[in-house]
What we know:
five-stranded antiparallel sheet, four-stranded antiparallel sheet
Amino acid sequence: MPMQLDRSEIPVKNRAIMFSVRFAFAASIFLALVVPACAGHTLYPHEQKALTNWLANHPQFRAATDIDCDCSEDIQQMKAGDRGIWRPVPDYHPYVATGDFNGDGLRDFAAVVIDKTKSTHQFTLLVFNGPLDSNAVVPAFVVSDLDLKYMGLFFGPPRPKPYRLIFGRFGSDHTSMLVPHRRSYKLR
């Protein structure tokens, strides 16, 4: 027969530890439901591999870099935050964004690439939906002939829910938004 303990037999210290563990568990569940999972601006290794494979199959393109943005002050501001509603984003890069863009609970990523054969409107936005197979790399959405100099990709708080992947000039309300549509997106 299993032994049963009366609550009064459990030392006060152990009850405090059990309460702390339960509280931490409940808080982590709450945060998981409120905070967008995996929102950021750094690719995981398998995502970087997928982008590298895509670029290998499209040699006229290269990954866009912070230098292509010509917006170093804006990047520093994003990394530092403004001590108000805009929190610091230490891993901010203007041409990479990660998060659950389509609301399916899986991490997606977006990257901007440069068409080396063009001198103007050389930016192309690629969006890859999760789960990701880094060997068979086909973006869910592609839009080319963009001029994204002085612009960046943004996703998540403090913008209102539902969060959407947006791109536009820093500090501007005039942005373009990707809205999920089936397994792809519509540009608005």
